[in-house]
């Protein structure tokens, strides 16, 4: 069976300019890979390329055995992503956002799923609020909850720890570990060493010189040293 993601000598960037050394990694079902590296090293650019929002400059990336095409129905059905963008419908409430996402992807019992997600992401008291009246951390929780509101084989998150308090970070780590243990594949870019060790089975260090595959412990150690 094809891995969920396979990147081979994948060169990413904007126009003709690459932003980091080519990356290679394989992500299977039930596994989680973290992209780690300094600010501006190219992690988000790799994620956008895996999601088909940017074309590879060289090398290849396949999702579920097929070249990435974000317009492809199968791709859109199987891949859930939360990038660092405030993508909201301003007139919809928190609850409506989640319901629309779930129903739009054919979730049976969408209403119950919404109630569960509101609880899990600490949004129950804000179910009827619109995004503009939420704090930035609450908006972030909403985006993340929407990522979990729909079926998926692959979950791609760009720095999911951003703007979350410690309690929510720990809860997110539990949720992501459960995702993996249930057979899902998780690809994240992160600066959070605890998230790497709690969730990931492998890490890829993204940088100007050769990108390297690291164990979660090595990656967490590298993040901690950069932070000192
Ligand atoms: N739309 C764009 N056009 C041109 N260059 C860009 C664009 N977006 C990002 N870059 C550049 O690409 C490089 C990699 O950026 P990227 O956002 O992938 O880094 P990152 O590792 O995710 O950083 P961070 O940890 O700060 O989020 C940076 O030098 C950045 O300035």
From TrEMBL:
Annotated SUPFAM superfamilies = P-loop containing nucleoside triphosphate hydrolases (SSF52540)
- Do the record's keywords include Transport? yes
Q: Which SMART domains match?
A: AAA
Entry superkingdom: Bacteria
Q: Is Transport among this UniProt entry's keywords?
A: yes
Q: Name one GO molecular function term.
A: ATP binding
Which positions fall inside the ABC transporter domain? 5-226
Q: Tell me what organism the protein belongs to.
A: Cellulomonas wangsupingiae
What is the protein name stated in its UniProt record? ABC transporter ATP-binding protein
- Show the CDD domains listed in the entry: ABC_DR_subfamily_A (cd03230)
Keywords, A to Z, come to:
ATP-binding, Nucleotide-binding, Transport
């Amino acid at each position: 069976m094809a891995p969920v993601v396979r990147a081979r000598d994948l060169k990413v960037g904007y126009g003709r300019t690459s932003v980091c050394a080519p990356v290679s990694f394989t992500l299977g079902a039930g596994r989680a890979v973290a992209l780690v590296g300094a600010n501006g090293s190219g992690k988000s650019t790799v994620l956008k390329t895996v999601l088909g929002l940017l074309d590879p400059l060289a090398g290849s990336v396949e999702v579920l055995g097929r070249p990435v095409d974000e317009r492809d129905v199968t791709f859109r059905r199987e891949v859930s992503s939360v990038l660092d963008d405030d993508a909201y419908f301003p007139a919809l409430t928190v609850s409506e956002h989640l319901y629309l996402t779930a129903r739009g992807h054919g979730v049976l019992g969408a209403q119950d799923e919404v109630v569960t997600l509101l609880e899990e992401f600490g949004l129950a008291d804000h179910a009827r609020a619109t995004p503009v009246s939420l704090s930035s951390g609450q908006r972030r929780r909403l985006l993340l909850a929407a990522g979990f509101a729909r079926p998926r084989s692959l979950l791609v998150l760009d720095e999911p720890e951003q703007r979350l308090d410690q309690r929510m970070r720990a809860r997110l780590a539990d949720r992501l570990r459960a995702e993996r243990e249930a057979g899902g594949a998780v690809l994240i870019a992160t600066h959070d060493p605890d998230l790497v060790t709690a969730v990931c089975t492998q890490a890829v260090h993204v940088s100007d010189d050769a990108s390297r595959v690291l164990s979660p412990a090595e990656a967490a150690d590298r993040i901690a040293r950069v932070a000192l």
